[in-house]
Amino acid sequence: MKRHISYANVVATLALFLALGGGAFAATKITGKQIKNGSLTGSDLKKHSISLNRLKGKLPAGKTGAPGTPGTPGAPGAPGTALAYAHVNADGTLDAANSKNVDRTSGIATAGYYCIQTSVPVHNVVVTPDSPTVARTATAGKSDPFTSCGAFDPTKPRGDVVVTTFSGTTATNTAFWIAIN
Asked: Is residue 133 pLDDT above 60, yes or no?
């Protein structure tokens, strides 16, 4: 058998050298400026070849850790904007330590009805019953259907409020909070 160089042998050898040396050539001749942004993915990079501080954008969130210890309590908040407020006991007496601009409260003979006299004009009233175990509702109005609040000081600015507290549909005595604007 005679050995001689054929065209096929030359082309195959040339292709082999180009394939083996092409990657080395590309590594020395292709720069970052020639790579289109967003064209490389994580699978295109060798592990640990780029540090995290060189990456831009967001990394996916990791697993949620255990809750931390509670922080220290914050400072007390600013005073509220209510012109007047009060905690009224079930017997109609005023809880003065938890009240502002409410001059007098009283319960009347009819269960669940209370009269409140404020030292400020009354425009809006919000009442919250003070009963965590029994479902109760309360209504408030500026009129006195029983005309029982007349014993209040007539020299003070009138800001009378009548509060009715209910358990179901029955008027009943219960303590409540009132805020007035």
From this structure: no
